[in-house]
Amino acid sequence: MLFLCAALSSAQAAGQKEPPQNSFDDRAASHLLLQLSEALQGHSQKQFLALFDLGKMKDGELFRQQIASFFSQTEAIRVHLNLVEIAGEGDKATLAVDAEMEVQPGNGGPPSRRNERLNFVVANSGGSWKFVDVQPRSFFSLP
């Protein structure tokens, strides 16, 4: 029976093709969210902002400044992102994500915790998917 499962898995893998770059699915969403959480937990502002197309984002420069302030005020970030829903619209999609974050401020104060439903908009940007909006943006700021 194990052999049959292994044979089926390899046959299915061989018959499956990668989804075209212009389709957004659970796998693409999970990959983007993983990159987002790794950037936050790795405290990498550069990697975090690289996941956003700030030029297509309303008030993108203001968001960049907000994120710079957030990273400069934090010492450590722990985050858990749970994809709840995806709705696709051609070259755009929206994601509903349950987010939990614990932030250790750089000033040595007590950690702050938050739980919130985030809504992301992603768009195909030059052959890759990038975030073009996130609401509420206040999630990425200290209280």
Give a concise summary.
The chain has helices at 2-15, 26-41, 45-50, 60-73, and strands spanning 74-89, 92-105, 112-125, 128-135.
Description:
The chain has 143 residues and is of the alpha+beta class. It has a single domain (23-140), classed as Nuclear Transport Factor 2, Chain: A (Roll), CATH 3.10.450.50. It is built from four helices and four strands, in the order ααααββββ. It has helices spanning 2-15, 26-41, 45-50, 60-73; strands at residues 74-89, 92-105, 112-125, 128-135. It has a four-stranded antiparallel beta sheet. β2 (92-105) and β3 form a beta hairpin. The chain starts with a helix and ends in an 8-residue tail after the last strand. Mean pLDDT is 86; it is low at 1-21.
Which terms would index this structure?
alpha+beta, Nuclear Transport Factor 2, Chain: A, globular
Largest sheet: 4 strands, antiparallel
Our count of helices gives 4
CATH top level is Alpha Beta
Ends distance: 55 Å
Radius of gyration: 18 Å
Mean pLDDT: 86
The third-level CATH topology is: Nuclear Transport Factor 2, Chain: A
Secondary structure blueprint with pairings:
Elements: H1 2-15, H2 26-41, H3 45-50, H4 60-73, E1 74-89, E2 92-105, E3 112-125, E4 128-135
Antiparallel strand pairs: 1-2, 2-3, 3-4
